[in-house]
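Changelog entry: the DUF503 domain-containing protein record was regenerated in this release. Current contents:
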Amino acid sequence: MHIAILTLTFALPGCSSLKEKRQRMGGLHARFGNTPSVAVCESDERDRHDASEWTFVIVGLSKREIESQCSQIEEKIERTVDARVMNVEREFI
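Regenerated structure tokens:
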């Protein structure tokens, strides 16, 4: 069993409220949290409307499988989220 922690930090330029932030970041939990091998939460910057940090915990049988899932998550976020990815960190346990 292998575990990865994927943390993405976002900037939301022009975002003026927490409501707008929820709309722009909307659905991250629903999109990725339904996958049995992935847990996701907003892990920091909850009270800021112009920034956000999300953490994904991915569990798999091989490191290769987990790396593939991390890449898929990053690619999908780049395409679907109305925010700039400022930092990506991967940690394997």
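Residues 63-80 form the longest helix (18 residues).
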